[in-house]
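FW: tagging you since you asked about this chain on Friday. Here's the raw sequence from the shared folder, copied in full. Didn't touch anything.
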Amino acid sequence: MANNIERPLDLLNNSKNKEVLVHLKGGNQFVGILVAFDIHINLVLDNTKEMQNNEIKRNIGLTFLRGDTIIFISPASFSSKKE
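HL: got it, structure written out here
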């Protein structure tokens, strides 16, 4: 498997302390450093930025995202330096 990922939560473990992109139901997107998660995929992100049209809409900081609102989580593969 790629990057030693054998189970879905392995991707989150490998992404801890790294930037991730989170897409929520309703279309909201957030980019931040993954600090913690649990088995319900509740996330804590730091240095969180709300994104809109691939640009930063606002800086939020330390954020809790509820797992049942998340559609997908991806290791951020783009630069979010459009401040």
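FW: The longest strand covers residues 55-65.
HL: agreed, and The helical segments are 8-15.
FW: great, closing this out.
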